[in-house]
Design goal:
- The chain is an alpha+beta fold and 212 residues long.
- It is 46% helix and 36% strand.
- Helix 2 packs across helix 3.
- The chain is elongated.
- The chain starts with a helix and ends with a helix.
Length: 212
């Protein structure tokens, strides 16, 4: 009887240990989410322009690249966008891309942007249904069945994806700086013209009063 009890106790411990090991094995994938080797690279960049201006430029850059803005909150500095992209080599494949950008001030002297994105690879398959002669030989097409299958999904980790985004963003920021300088120049020229006009008016008024 004691041997049976000991054997059952040993068996219970063994089963519990195997369950713990199994759970640990199942958790290894997502437990590495904050591992340094799982961190995204080249998905951050800093700019000297004001946070509000960079926020608008990020939205414009995403839209110009074919993304649809799902939400944009200036207070939190978060922009979320999505794009459905057709595979150029396979008409049955498309990619559903979700991007999230965080725009924030860094000590009031720099605007930092962090981008994260995920994608779904989607298979669009069409199958023709047929009327069969003797249930064997297809004779007449009776319709078409359409299927949409997600065949792959996950985070986008390739540095080139983020590098391309920031390269486009840098071009947009440069255009913004040029526009700001041009507007400042126009404003300065207008102010100077108004000053000269006011001086001439004051001079003519003084001359007219002197003749009285």
């Amino acid at each position: 009887m004691k041997r049976v009890v000991l054997w059952l106790g040993f068996l219970s411990v063994a089963v519990a240990t195997m369950n713990l090991l199994g759970c640990a094995g199942n958790q290894q994938g997502y437990q590495k989410a904050f591992d340094s080797q799982s961190a995204l690279t080249q998905n951050q960049c800093g700019f000297t322009q004001p946070c509000e201006a960079v926020f608008k430029i990020v939205k414009q850059t995403l839209v110009q690249q074919g993304f649809t803005i799902e939400s944009a909150d200036l207070k939190s500095g978060v922009v979320k966008a999505v794009r459905n992209m057709q595979d150029k080599d396979d008409p049955e494949i498309s990619y559903n891309i979700h991007a999230s950008a965080d725009i924030s001030d860094v000590a009031g002297s720099e605007t930092n942007i962090s981008l994260a994105a995920s994608q779904q690879t989607i298979l669009h398959r069409s199958t023709t249904t047929w009327w069969h002669l003797l249930w064997i030989i297809p004779i007449i097409p009776t319709g078409t069945d359409y299927q949409t299958l997600v065949i792959k999904e996950g985070n986008i980790t390739e540095p080139a994806f983020y590098t391309d985004f920031f390269n486009n963003l840098k071009v947009a920021v440069t255009k913004y700086d040029i526009a700001v300088k041009a507007a400042a120049k126009v404003a300065a020229e207008k102010a100077e013209a108004e000053r000269i006009k006011a001086e001439k008016a004051a001079k003519l008024k003084a001359e007219a009063e002197a003749k009285i």
